[in-house]
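Cross-posted from the bioinformatics board.
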Amino acid sequence: MTAMRPASTPPAALPIADALWTSADRALELARIVEGAREVPVGQTPKELVWRKNKARLYRYTRTTPATRRTPVFLCLPLINRAYILDLRPGASFVEHLLAEGHEVFLLDWGVWGAEDRGIDITALVTRYLPRAIRAAAQTARRDVTLLGYCIGGVLAVCYLALQEDAPVRQLVLFTTPVDFADAGKFGMWTAKGVFPIERIREVYDVVPGELIGAGAKLLQGPLADVGALTQLAQRMSQPGFDPVAWQSMYRWINEGTPFPGAAYQQWIIEFYQENKLVRGTLRMDGRPVRLDAIRMPVLNVAAAADTIAPRPTTSAVLSRVSSTDREELIVQGGHVGIVVGRAAKRELWPKVTDWLRRHDG
Amino acid sequence: MSDEKSEGAQADPFALWRQWYEASEKAWGKAAADATDTEAYAALQGRMLESYLAFQKTARGMATAQLETMNLASRDDVARLGELILGLEEKVDQLMDELPRGRARARGPDSTTAKPTPTTRPAKPTGTTRPAKKRPARR
């Protein structure tokens, strides 16, 4: 990959020229890695499609050996990010870890919303998409499932279980799921009533562009977040054993947001962030109250200690609101994304989650 | 010799970039974090967003008007058609949900109390899927 250095340029004799030449090579290599991130393979664990509705797809991951755990795991992903974050690449895949631990694994990918989905709100996802997908998984596996929701996916899971007491779900696992927006950090402040032009956003966009939502998330990391990522790459490129694919897959995921259906975004901002209806017990879906105390199953709540997207106060409240007697909180060092993927996830989070699942395997 | 080395280091744009980033991040990172954590900043950001959206609205309105003049379907027209198809899909799903309950009712009064069998719309057979090599289309 490194360009040939002319033999006529002795490094010791012309150090400045040599340094510039080497830098040019590195700049080219850096550009190649960044550009290649768009095409880097992700979500490679083999899977089959078991259910679909509109853009949503339910996948069942292929097992090479029979499952040794009785309870399948159903992964409910956030709306605004690509679903492959939990199956980023071989060796950095929560899905792969669950399969290795003997579970059947289902993943609900919401897909990429288009303008025709502008009228789909959170209520539709909770009452018309999620119940059918979970029933399809339970029917395919012939077992009730563990429902695992990540971020907004966790909010959808919570609302669904609060509404549907006879759901084919044995237990609930939440990853960085905000439920109480009274102290929602910077996002809470930026989206406050009278400040955030939600009605105007809804007027202009059928689906809120992923770039707009992503810009907010990046702003949380600081103004130099993008430069920081490239600086880190430039530094790591020269280290022995550097794997560009690892960097590329994460970079691809961060920069590949998905649009949010307009009606869902409006409901998310107004009813959850601004009016905090979920924990106040005033949220209604299809005319029915969404009551967190209707949840009685075992709950494992995973929070990230340094989460700026869903800060601790937003995620920890769920345990005091559900009626479950078997409830546990796991606080992991790291940020909103860092705790679910990467080296720390492999060491800190995944084994603890699968241990909890093993103890609750019915 | 050591002077030459130091000259080389100074000519390395990556080293300079890193130095600049570390210094800037140190100086500005905390200041920016504090500045964006205020209600004044939230209000300013809201106003900036409002202006941007006003521009977007005008631009989109002009594009739609041009398409109408040329007798071409606008994005909104296509979206409406898509919504109709989605509505039909939902109706089919509702019928599929009702099917087991209808079957139970047809079998007799005792079976109506039975928990309905979960129904699913069969997915298109795809076999084992592999990740797409190209980025999926946005729309």
